[in-house]
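Q: Give me the 3D complex with guanosine-5'-triphosphate.
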Amino acid sequence: MFESLSERLDSAFKQLKGEGRISEINVASTVKEIRRALVDADVNYKIAKDFTDRVREKALGEKVITAISPGQLMVKIVKDELTELMGGSEAELDVKSNPSIILIAGLQGSGKTTFSGKLANFLKTKKGKKPLLVAADIYRPAAIDQLKVLGEQIGVEVYSEPENKDAVKIAQNAIAHAKQNNNNIIIIDTAGRLAVDEVMMTEVANVKAAVKPNEILFVVDSMTGQDAVNTAKAFNERLDFSGVVLTKLDGDTRGGAALTIKYTVEKPIKFVSMGEKLDTLDVFYPERMAQRILGM
Amino acid sequence: AGKTTVDTEVLDSLEEALVSADVGVDTTVQIIDRIEKRVSKDKYLGTAELNKILQEEIAGLLVDAPDSGFRDFDVPADKKPYVIMVVGVNGVGKTTTIGKLAYNFKKAGKSVLLGAADTFRAAAVDQLTIWSDRVGVPIVKQQMGSDPGAVAFDTVQSGAAKGSEVIIIDTAGRLHNKAHLMDELSKIKRVMKKVIPDAPHEVLLVLDGSTGQNALEQARHFTAATEVTALAITKLDGTAKGGVVLAIANQFKIPVKYIGIGEKMEDLQVFSKEEFVDSLFSIKE
Ligand SMILES: Nc1nc2c(ncn2[C@@H]2O[C@H](COP(=O)(O)OP(=O)(O)OP(=O)(O)O)[C@@H](O)[C@H]2O)c(=O)[nH]1
Ligand SMILES: Nc1nc2c(ncn2[C@@H]2O[C@H](COP(=O)(O)OP(=O)(O)OP(=O)(O)O)[C@@H](O)[C@H]2O)c(=O)[nH]1
Ligand SMILES: [K+]
Ligand SMILES: [Mg+2]
Ligand SMILES: [Mg+2]
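A: Here is the predicted complex, encoded as structure tokens.
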């Protein structure tokens, strides 16, 4: 893809060989190619447009040196710009308070429960913490069992109240329990919900209001398409989340949703998840993600 | 309304609607080209006419199932038990879709048996067991971690012995780029043939409606491993449109049979081309 994109860009520059700088005319056709590549990678249509307009500004007047083809130069500009956009703000997880409360939220099936297990394992083994996992998904069949199995695998206690149908109460009770048991991290796994589901969005907003989390992580499937913009916006409006987790990056998706989300809500991507086993939690590298989106 | 000029502006907004629905650039360009060709003779036409042409072009990309009995949750009389194997990447809604299908088949008077061949994902068997209780259909299961092929074999054998009319086999979610997991799926499929030579009669690939262009790769690899015969698209109760299924149907000629529109057992619908095309252009708040 990298080859083909820079080749496609090179051919767009062909007719203007010999010109020393990238000009208005030759940049127009290449911008179209780049935009298409981004949309093919699932970057939101409007954002791809916006982004390539920015790239165009950057590229105009840029000096073309003979060692590097104009196509490659354009790809480099795009990659650098993408990398910068996706990095930026501080991406450390705030776990200084005792206890630190981390609320996990996102769409159905995005990987929240699995990530909760991974995060607990990471904080336990790498940061010497004593986490408590909280099963606040009162809807999905066997959600509690699922979290319990994961907790057992990593030796982390799971707090649950199978008979309680009030997620807010469960979360509050869990905090009281954690204080008694000297848990210094509380990870609250919530049910999957759609951004348009008013009742469910209110529920998670209520959990937030009740427990005042130190971190709210929005978990999103890296295979998500154009809708990522709506979902990210809606969850951010309700929760003002502190970070994003990109899951299932062990697949072969280009992952343009990462750019869409970063662009839309300007929140850092704090972790990536690359597998079903609980030891595969990774930090996010903006440059790698930029290359992935561009198919490099 | 007055006359619409099918000019660049109209085509641009059409393009935007399609691309924003995850239809993908290639398929969008193909649709736009065809519309451009069809209207070039007569440049002016009403919105209603334009919509009709659009409907036709898009519907033309979608394939029909060879047998329409599925619309009433009927199964072919000569295929008893009718074995459905459900496959797809992680978290798309396979197990939930199985619960919904079981509910619908049962409602249509069929005897149903579920097979819990996801022995890998934490509490996957418990989840399917809850669905079997909810719907009131029996389930065949083994310990977590046991061989999924053996569970599938047991299920088909037990269903054949007790005269079940529909057998639905759940499988673990797996990403299509993991060759060993895809091989395992081919093996699960093969093993059922030892009991019923033409089983599974249906391989249902479940796609998450919010997935982007990667769904094409999913279709490609699952088809290669298991010869997918039908698609189900889930989570269309959200704002995602599931447009990538147009590209998939177009490229792989697989019919879409069901859509998922919620988490309850009633939240399954039989796919309708017309409604799907309409929804591509509608805005949901
Ligand atoms: N390959 C892969 N699979 C993953 C990853 N993260 C989660 N999964 C799988 O995705 C599926 C869904 O994960 P869950 O953790 O249950 O997702 P969830 O968001 O809690 O789902 P709900 O609670 O139903 O909304 C499971 O099969 C997981 O094993 C990942 O990074 N890579
Ligand atoms: N809103 C909505 N949620 C759905 C739909 N179908 C499934 N879900 C939810 O999506 C999540 C994942 O569903 P599952 O049925 O567990 O998915 P799966 O493909 O079996 O997952 P794995 O076995 O882990 O790969 C659950 O929270 C379901 O309730 C749907 O049509 N609409
Ligand atoms: K998903
Ligand atoms: Mg969960
Ligand atoms: Mg499942």
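A quick observation: The beta strands of chain A are 100-106, 131-136, 157-159, 185-190, 215-221, 243-247, 269-273, 281-283.
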